[in-house]
Amino acid sequence: MNRRRLWTLVRREIQATFRDPFTVTILVSVPIGALLLFGFILATDVKHLALGLYDGSRSAASRRLAADLAANKTFDITAYPSSDAIGDALGSGAISVGVVIPADFDDDTRRSRPGAEPPRIQVLYDGGEAALAGNAEAFVNSLLQASAPALGDQARDPRRSVVPGAERGGGGIGVVARAVFNPGLEGTPFMVAGTFGFVLSFLTTLITAVSIVNEKLAGTFEQLQVTPATSIEILLGKLLPLGAVFAFDVALMVVIAGLVLRVWPEGSALLFVGVSAYYVLISLALGLIFSATSATAAEAVQKTVLFSIPLVQLSGFLFPVRNMPTVVQWLANLLPATHYIKISRAIYLRAEGLGSMMPDLLFLFVCGVGLIYYARRVIEARA
Amino acid sequence: MSRWRTFVSNVAAIAYKEAAIIRHDKAFLSMVLIQPWMMLLIASYVLSNKPADVPWAVLDQSHTALSRRLVQSVQATGYFLRPQTETSYESARERLREGKALVVLVIPQSLARDAERGEPRVQLLLDGSDPLSAARIGGYVSQVASSFQLRISAPVALDPDRPIRSAGPIDIRQRFWFNPTLADREFFLAALAGMLLTNLCLSGTSLGLVGERESGTYEQMLALPIRPIEIVLGKLVPFVGISYVLMLFAIVVPGLCFGIWPHGSWLALFWTTLPFVLASLAIGVLVSTLVETSAQAVFITVFFALPSFVLSGVMMPYQFMPHGVREVGAVLPLRWYQIACRRIIERGGGIIETAGPTLAMFAIFAVLLALIRWRMKPRLG
After folding, report:
1. pTM, 2 dp
2. How many structural domains does chain A have?
3. How far, CA to CA in Å, does B64 sit from each of A83, B69, B95?
């Protein structure tokens, strides 16, 4: 390997990249756009969910229950005149949750002594939006359970001491839940850490895939191959400048995530940038392989897209790998992106140290060496 | 009259030519053939919000029969792996940090005594770095605990496919309509057509038009006695055909494989697909007027399609998104199409129930047409 030759190739690549305003725009705007988009998109604290309420009882107790449901802004409550109207609204998608308070609700509350039947209400969810219904269920349940003892107290003799557990015939353990690392359970940090994986897997592969094919179409790739430059020099001449550009992208994203979204890495930023830079090399090598094995730009792009769509879904960027069937989990774990996203979340959110990330780092290392070696073979074969 | 006839015959001629090209385009055909199956597998097996195999740990300071029973009943929900045993807060926290556990259940020493006094409490430490899972898992554990029988030990068999019903001071009778087991599969498969058609329409048209410009055949066509709008329409016709084939695939195959047939009217499904396909194709055409090379067209379509899957609410309910982002998503035809599809397939809607989304898509299409007319001039060179 000749250092001067390599430097010439690197300079050539940098000039070629920056001469094309479209590529430069993409390189800057896609990371920022993705970051802002995905950073804002996920709000786990469901707010203003449409809830339809039919109050058949029209009593103090039922009004109190409705007020409790409306209290913390999770639900926007609309009153409906009958339970059929609730059903229709649910079907048309106007509401996500329907609560039906029967006419005898208040009587039931007053009779709520130990042993008596508890007051009954009906809650209907729009299961069509499965994830939403699952979350709404937890909210409704906790709100209703929280308001229930109060309803009972109001009806009962106020002087009697109330012992909730004993009252209910020995049911229930209170749970004090506390989220560590992200006490507010905010969606933004989770998505920001994942977006690095998304951008670095997708954009890098696509850009390299297109770049080599374009050179091949223009004929400059063959000119390169007849120069004294060796295949490893050509490879590095492609990888290093693009790698540097993406390392800059990583730094840019870290800063923007910090300034705009207020998400700074909990762990070592240096470690994060280091791992990211290495991961960029892996994706670039993958892009090189795609492009070197394709005849036209369209083919290279199609390979990349076909590969990248499952990559986005399988890597755990949006859906936890844990939730997938076992066979799919094996597949997911074969993708470098899965491990990179795991690492980036570990560093970004939990300030994890090197020790526990070793298996993932090792996998990435092996992947990188293998892919770069293979990319070199492919380029050599073409020479 | 004769002008109209020329128009139709011109469009038909271009459509014929375009269909012939598509028939010989191996790369495109393989994409059209492979992608539906890939997306089907992904939508039915990969995408899932339902917690499964959750790693968790128990820090049991009470060591009583009661605490062991509580751990068992949490385990019995079917969402969790076997619990790991922790001995101290520090090790529990470390376990969370390493990601080896998502939840740590801390049972205080005084649990049995508290239960006697009627105020039993346990603590739950959740890994907040994955907030969606944390919120949901926390909810499950709370429900198990709140319906936990302190004295009578009646083992309740819980079906992991059914959400836990709670029994508290108020008897809440809850039902999940349209999808009783809250299966994610139905949610995602109902939007499968939307995902497939977005990919097809965007990449097909934008690549096709830019490709012709690159190879110079667009200029040849401009030299023909044909207006540009006829060229564009002619190029779109075959895609409308393929779109309907893909839509049928997205409806019939989930029906055959998983028994998920549309509950609503098929007619409505066909009708709402039309404005969606038109609007998506129009986006492709618009992209083609904005870019120079096919590589650029691909970049723009890819980076438009992927976020639009998320923004439109195909991947996760748009109700989760904060206001502002939600409204941005409303500009996408896919948002309205997935609403319409889910309404028809899951909730048994018909043409009347989906009139709103359909109108919205027609409106988007109209705006796009205006934009295209403004951008597209017969350009040479």
Report:
1. 0.78
2. 2
3. 46, 9, 23
